[in-house]
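FORM 12-B: Structure-to-Sequence Request
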């Protein structure tokens, strides 16, 4: 076997055996308005204050869309209706306590916001902000999420 074929075999067949699959999360693309007045709701992370979409882990007994809707409520006080199918996805590295990095893939569901509550589970822990999709793309750090926001 030539060196090139051996390298190809290693990268295509052996390397994937030792890589962990990405952890699945759900994200909420909370939106209001139409056309040029359309806006996206971003929230800050609790630890670093970065701007993100509300997101979290799938929930037993709930669809992914329902879990995204629950995350929107808990993190941003959003009441609304989730689309049943994702509008996109993005990947990022979640840093856990102790520095452990988990590769996560976030399935993003559009939430059509009907109301924002003043009192919700994480109200005192996060800030929230309505911005245009273009501005939201500049505020988030994840390249694939930026691309998703620019496509709106």
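FORM 12-B RESPONSE
SEQUENCE OUT:
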């Amino acid at each position: 076997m030539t060196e090139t074929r051996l390298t190809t075999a290693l990268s295509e067949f052996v390397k994937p055996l030792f890589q962990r699959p990405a952890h699945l999360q759900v994200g909420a693309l909370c939106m209001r308005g139409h056309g040029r007045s359309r806006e996206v709701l971003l929230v800050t992370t609790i630890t670093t204050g970065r701007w993100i979409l509300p997101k979290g882990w799938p929930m037993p007994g709930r669809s992914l869309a329902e879990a995204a809707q629950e995350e929107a409520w808990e993190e941003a006080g959003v009441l609304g209706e989730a689309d049943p199918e994702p509008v996109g996805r993005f990947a990022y590295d979640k840093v856990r306590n102790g520095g452990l990095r988990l590769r996560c893939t976030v399935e993003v569901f559009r939430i059509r916001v009907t109301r924002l509550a003043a009192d919700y589970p994480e109200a005192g822990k996060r800030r929230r902000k309505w911005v245009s999709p273009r501005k939201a793309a500049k505020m988030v750090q994840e390249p694939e999420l930026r691309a998703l926001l620019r496509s709106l």
